[in-house]
Amino acid sequence: MESGPGGASGEVSSPVARTGSLFPIRILPHLYPQAIGKGGKARLAPLKYLRTLTTGFLDRCFLIAVTAKTAFLFILPQYNISVPTADGETVHYHYGPKDLVTILFYVFITIILHAVVQEYILDKISKRLHLSKVKHSKFNESGQLVIFHLSSVIWCFYVVVTEGYLTNPRSLWEDYPHVYLPFQVKFFYLCQLAYWLHALPELYFQKVRKEEIPRQLQYICLYLVHIAGAYLLNLSRLGLILLLLQYSTEFLFHMARLFYFADENNEKLFNAWAAVFGITRLFILTLAVLAIGFGLARMENQAFDPEKGNFNTLLCRLCVLLLVCAAQAWLMWRFIHSQLRHWREYWNEQSAKRRVPAAPRLPARLIKRESGYHENGVVKAENGTSPRTKKLKSP
To answer: Residue 281 has what pLDDT?
Structure first.
């Protein structure tokens, strides 16, 4: 048996184990033979290369006992602590610098999942719809966000129900600061931060148009600021409820866009989203003012102590409320502006249709009748006798 590109003949082993390096250039001929061009230069797509890099890293870490402990640093949340309870002890978590490593790992995982959804689901659907370049870009964006928002709504709803945050609103500000988090709460926040951070390199991978980049950067940064703020300021319980409301509205909007791309006459979901959007803004503002402006203001431990995770001061509460109110006001202003623009375009189309002049009617042709009158299809003379036929003269 001939020897392979990277190992001895007759032996079957992992390509990563034969390379001796975490950088998986040598494993490309094994996993993707079509990725190597002339002279050994890689011509692999960035997403497939990243997928290869992540897979090789996991194989390397888990197959070798020395690096197995390091692998758990990337995969599992860190800073666990046993908290005594009435039933015994439960394991909770708090945040720290090692969370950045875990977030970075899940950024790579999210990029791979993004590519899988794009290649095996969205591309196949868009080919059947025959969309233009602009609609194709928006279709891909909405398709990715529909899957993300739906999974996040289900996951977030499960967390707030099992933890009792939905049935007990007082738990949003009682026992503040909420330094120690259950596993599912911390893991949810880490995955949320990883998703919105992965959206930054996706602007390059998806080849987003330059006109669309500022708009997408705006809402990516908006989500990152709010999620990171709730996580670092120990307002995780309030952040879960606000994310549940926001994601539900966004899911409805992107679902409406997908139906619109499939059938341009289908705009019923947009009307439902418009009604839900305003109600959601009202609920978010009310809940934020209730929890931060009234709930935390009545707590006894009003002191600035970053070591204990306590940020319950008047200045911090005002800054958080100002940020939330400013974000909701900005979203509402953009919503009103877009609705006015759509209504203006609709009325312009209707008025243009009314101004189109009707086609002029052609005058009816006058039928030239012979002198006399008709009787049973025969022309009669005025005196009642039939006109004689003229004899043709012979030449």
So the answer is: 94
